[in-house]
Amino acid sequence: MQILPDFIKKRIVPNETYIIHSVLSKEQIGFPLMIDVGACEGDALLPFLNDGWVIHAFEPDQRNNSRLKKRTSNKSIIINSEAVSNKIQNQVDFYSSHESTGVGSLLKFSKFHELSQTVNTTTLKAYCDENKIDKIDYLKVDVEGHDKQVLEGFDWTRIKPSIVMCEYEYRKTKLLNYTMHDLIRFFEEKKYNVMVSVWNPLKKYGGPHKWCKFVYSDFKSISDDTWGNIIAARDDTLWGNLTGQAKKYSKIWSLNLYYYIRRWNNIALNPTLEKTNKA
After folding, report:
1. Beta carbons within 8 Å of 122's beta carbon, 6+ residues apart
2. 22-31 residue pLDDT tens
3. For residue 206, is it left (φ>0), alpha (ψ between -120 and 50) or beta?
């Protein structure tokens, strides 16, 4: 059931994809290309796909991969079933959870995770070489903990994506011995401008989440119990457009209207949630 029409959701629902898409849709890009690593059911790539972009998507979770194919049939998209990391391997354990369809991972970070399948892994360098990809306009990475490994497996000397977005969450990345600050340093060393879209601490995977703020420079001020997305851009003009859009949306996003609408809707459908869904 759709709670809100799309034109209202694009204004009040915190979603970094809206900002990136609104900026890139105004650019004059010849043969625009996006790589989506951890595509899930395709929510982040659909706005670009509908604009005629070529999309290369990776989604190893069998259920999500099947749903993604149904949502994008007859469109210019290549859907891969491999997982992406910093090394090529076969038969690697992959974990899924009944708590949320969006937390499938090579990393077992949740008590609800169960071994669901084995997958092969590739690297972005190998994939781009094999498919003769020599430019990427938007690289999105959301692989539930292994984001740094995905970035490490890319050839940054040959291709420099215009915009990159990846996720951070300490409860995952600490198991792999890196933090949000390591990701920021990774981008800054490659001469990217960086901002962080910060979300309040997670209470439950798959539930409504509260957005917090954008941080543009004082990254040490970000609490370790948060999660969010790091957005990086090399071009200063593009960067200025991104930060302009971020500041435009941040005031209404900080009200978290959609969080409360979803929460009230859930309680209306299941009144027993009122006692357990306090925030």
Report:
1. 80, 82, 83, 84, 85, 88
2. 999 999 999 9
3. left
Q: Please check the confidence at residue 274 and state whether its pLDDT lies above 90.
A: no
Nearest to 133 by CA among 42, 228, 56, 49: 56
Separation of alpha carbons 277 and 279, rounded Å: 6
Q: How far apart are CA 270 and CA 119, in angstroms?
A: 37
Tell how far CA 231 is from the center of its chain: 10
* Residue 213, token pair as written in the block: 């703020």
Q: Which of 95, 150, 94, 159 is nearest to 122 (CA)?
A: 150
pLDDT digits 0-9 by tens, 29-65 = 999 999 999 999 999 999 999 999 999 999 999 999 9
Nearest-Å Rg of the Cα atoms of the chain is 18
d(CA 19, CA 246): 7
Predicted confidence at residue 219, as pLDDT, reads 98
Q: Burial, 126: exposed, middle or buried (Cβ in 10 Å; 0-12, 13-18, 19+)? A: middle
> CA–CA separation, 112 vs 132, rounded Å?
39
Mean pLDDT, residues 256-276 taken together: 64
pLDDT in tens, 91-133: 999 999 999 999 999 999 999 999 999 999 999 999 999 999 9
If 0-12 CB within 10 Å is exposed, 13-18 middle and 19+ buried, where does residue 12 land? Answer: middle
